[in-house]
Write a structure and sequence with these properties.
175 residues; three-stranded mixed sheet
């Protein structure tokens, strides 16, 4: 099985000059945890994930934000203003790990494990053509298991029919 068999082709992406706030809204609306970042020609230039957002609004250098404090704090307007002004290119991961549509699934799994990532953009050259995530891989696995189950069921039915035919044959000839 290769990437083209499991990848999502209708990719939600964002341009590098979009604001962080726009990217966050797009991720929430699309119910995804990462976005490929493309240039105006649709070429992959980066990726932005929930992890990048967590790093982007640190209240102090070297310290993770406390989201409850951020939401309830009277300074939330300052953070919101900063998110409206900051561009995706500032917090994205440039030159992300990617894969091609004809790569075997094993390569994708190896990259995901090696780099501790949840998704890989799929490119043809530098052009973004899809994305493959862990949920895509799970769907592919379930399809494969279903096919194996169907083949196994068909084999069992065929064996049962052959047994019935053999029995009927011997019964007719034994008389």
């Amino acid at each position: 099985m290769n990437v083209s068999e499991v990848m999502t082709r209708d990719v939600v992406s964002v341009q590098a000059d979009a604001t962080i706030l726009e990217a966050g809204k797009l991720m929430l609306e699309s119910r995804i945890s990462g976005l490929p970042v493309v240039d105006s020609a649709g070429c992959l230039v980066g990726i932005i994930t929930e992890r990048d957002f967590l790093r982007s609004v640190r209240p102090e250098p070297g310290r993770r934000p406390r989201w409850l404090e951020l939401i309830t704090n009277h300074k939330t307007a300052d953070v919101l203003t900063r998110l409206q002004d900051e561009r995706v290119e500032r917090i994205m991961t440039p030159n992300p790990v990617a894969t091609s549509e004809d790569a075997p699934i094993e390569d994708v799994l190896t990259k995901m494990e090696t780099y501790s990532i949840k998704r890989l953009p799929v490119v043809r050259g530098t052009q973004l053509i899809g994305i493959v995530s862990r949920s895509d891989l799970l769907r592919g696995l379930m399809r494969s298991l279903r096919k194996v189950s169907e083949v196994t069921s068909e084999d069992a039915l065929t064996r049962q029919r052959l047994t019935t035919l053999e029995r009927d044959y011997w019964l007719r000839h034994a008389r």
